[in-house]
Write a structure and sequence with these properties.
597 residues, Porin, 15% helix, 9 helices, elongated, 16-stranded antiparallel beta barrel, two-stranded antiparallel sheet, alpha+beta
């Protein structure tokens, strides 16, 4: 109690409070207090604390000795306080005992302290998840990312009046056939003279899932009119029907190290290729083409800890592995000619005083693409499948040199002068082992504006003119013949010249923003393209220029501008003619708006 009294008595009390002390004391304390002689009369003090102590002594709450000790202590503290005030500099009042002084803190220091405290609190909140806005969401939602883009486009197709109207649609023959192309005048033909104006859209939804720090899943759903591997656009119109989503990508992506990566499943093209800034109208593979299979890459420069990029890539990609029951109508089954290709690429990248230069060399080897002539096929006895029907492409455009697959056996009972039906499928006359060279240079001009120069070259090393007539007149090429001769490329007496080829190149020049993302970004580009008939599979190359396929040449002019964040408006003009064969010129106008999210 003495300790509490000492703390309390350091504060002067008003006189009125003194009169209430007897009432505040417990009755038991008053009765239990031992009687003591009244203290000697003393003169009243002007200190409330002294008067309070004397009252406590008079009420026998404390002894007289304790009271004197409290008074002595209080007087000593008062003397020390007076001495401190006298020693303080002029104009500065001395603080009473027990006062805590707080030094002045500048605004900059206070701001720094506040920011450090904010960072610490936010870090703790994020780690413990007690203040995160998504704290109520399941844990798996933190590993999912969603994005995509929507493109709406006007599409104009303009044909020359001088075009041939005898451009056979071999894709339909292989899909709906076989067709008797030798005796049946009713064949599927491509449009070659009627202009067409239409509109389409493309919606792509990207979903990424992080499994671990080095393992992820990549998914993309995309629209599409049909099963084409090189286009995910869907026509507007069509009776206002609802549209389908196709699985465009479904891949597991692993990063064993910081300098390597592996894809498995269905994924975007892993091989780099120089293109215009719009990343369209590439020479070898269409920009929308996705690959099936497995691929890997390793950056040798990063692996060695060097300041340069040297990346090697490779993969194996199935195209058509066939069914388990081939041929389906035959009791005797045969091995299906599984179609696939494997690829390898070396890419080098380096900066020379701000100029970014990339160059690559790639090799793509396609298996079981070249058609083979069948064993004698007894169509006249009701055979509906022949031994090499499996070599026909499951998808194609136009341009490749094609030869018949079937060796139709002669019906010995056929009356003289009667024509025997010749139902046929077609496949490429040549194999494909494609060498691809690509280079580009990005030169900064000002701010974020660049000049981009690109170039590509491809050569089909499997192209051999000696293969044209390897199967005789029965397997001679059916298209890509020139003028003159008797119409047969493999004729023994008056052969029609073959006008196909195996090379291609594309050059481009672009000026503007490297990546158009915000308002005010822009790009202008100009290119020239030349692609012979058998330089690459016509089913895989760009689907816009000449409306897809090979055996074409011409110019590309385009422009794009960002009108808002992630909103781009652009247009391009693609003017293309055939290189050889029947006249077939097509110009394409595209005006589009693309919104990314």
């Amino acid at each position: 109690m003495l300790r509490h009294a000492q703390r309390f008595l350091r504060t002067p009390l008003p006189a009125a409070a003194l009169a209430l002390l007897p009432l505040a004391m417990p009755a038991a304390a008053q009765e239990a207090a031992p009687a003591a002689p009244a203290p000697a009369a003393t003169a009243p003090s002007d200190s409330a604390m002294v008067n309070l102590v004397r009252a406590l002594v008079a009420q026998k709450a404390i002894t007289e000795a304790q009271g004197n000790a409290l008074i002595a202590q209080a007087e000593a503290e008062a003397a020390a306080a007076r001495a401190a005030r006298e020693a303080a500099p002029a104009g500065i009042a001395a603080a009473p005992p027990g006062t805590i002084r707080v030094p002045y803190v500048p605004d900059t220091v206070r701001t720094q302290i506040k920011e450090e405290l904010k960072r610490e609190v936010l870090a703790e909140a994020k780690a413990e998840r007690w203040a995160a806005p998504d704290a109520a969401a399941p844990e798996w939602t933190q590993r999912i990312t969603i994005g995509g883009d929507l493109r709406v486009r006007y599409y104009g197709e303009y044909y020359s009046n001088q075009n041939s109207n005898q451009i056979i649609d071999f894709e339909q023959i292989n899909l709906q056939g076989p067709y008797d192309v030798f005796n049946n005048p009713v064949l599927p033909f491509l449009n070659s003279r009627q202009n067409r104006n239409t509109a389409d859209f493309r919606l792509r939804l990207n979903i990424g899932a992080k499994i671990t720090d080095r393992l992820a899943v990549d998914l993309q759903l995309a629209t599409g009119d049909d099963r084409s591997p090189i286009s995910v656009s869907d026509s507007l119109g069509g009776g206002l029907r609802p549209r389908n989503f196709w699985v465009q990508r479904a891949a597991i992506i692993a990063k064993p190290t910081d300098w390597s990566r592996v894809w498995a499943g269905r994924f975007t093209n892993p091989f780099t290729s120089a293109a215009l800034t719009t990343e369209r109208v590439t020479l070898l593979f269409d920009n929308d083409l996705a690959f099936d299979g497995i691929a890997a890459e390793a950056n040798i420069g990063k692996a060695l800890g060097q300041d340069f990029n040297a990346t090697v890539r490779g993969g194996l990609f199935p195209i058509d592995l066939g069914g388990r029951n081939y041929p389906s109508t035959s009791q005797d089954k045969i091995a299906y000619p599984a179609k696939y290709f494997y690829s390898g690429q070396l890419e080098l990248e380096h900066k020379f005083g701000g100029v970014d230069v990339q160059a690559s060399i790639a090799y793509h080897d396609f298996k079981n693409i070249q058609g083979q002539l069948s064993e004698p096929c007894l169509v006249y006895l009701g055979a509906v499948e022949c031994s090499t029907d499996g070599f026909r492409p499951n998808f194609q455009r136009k341009g490749n040199t094609l030869s018949p697959l079937r060796r139709i056996a002669v019906d010995p009972t056929l009356p003289s002068g009667q024509v025997q039906p010749q139902p046929q499928f077609f496949a490429p006359t040549f194999g494909f082992r494609v060498l691809h060279l690509s280079a580009e240079a990005n030169v900064p001009v000002w701010d974020k504006t660049f000049v981009k120069v690109t170039g590509q070259y491809i050569n089909n090393l499997a192209f051999k003119r000696s293969d044209i007539c390897r199967n005789g007149i029965a397997g001679q090429p059916f298209n890509n013949g020139g003028d003159g001769g008797d119409g047969n490329i493999c004729s023994a007496t008056n052969a029609t010249p073959f006008v196909g080829g195996n090379q291609g190149y594309q050059i481009g020049l672009a000026l503007g923003t490297a990546k158009i993302k915000t308002r005010g970004d822009w790009s202008l580009n100009l290119g020239y393209r030349y692609l012979e008939s058998d330089a690459i599979l016509d089913s895989l190359t760009d689907s816009d220029f000449h409306l897809g396929g090979t055996n074409n040449k011409g110019f590309i002019v385009g422009a794009e501008v960002g009108i808002a964040k992630n909103l781009v408006v652009g247009g391009r003009w693609l003017s293309a003619n055939e290189i050889a064969g029947e006249p077939y010129a097509i110009d394409v106008l595209q005006i589009e708006m693309v919104a990314s999210f």
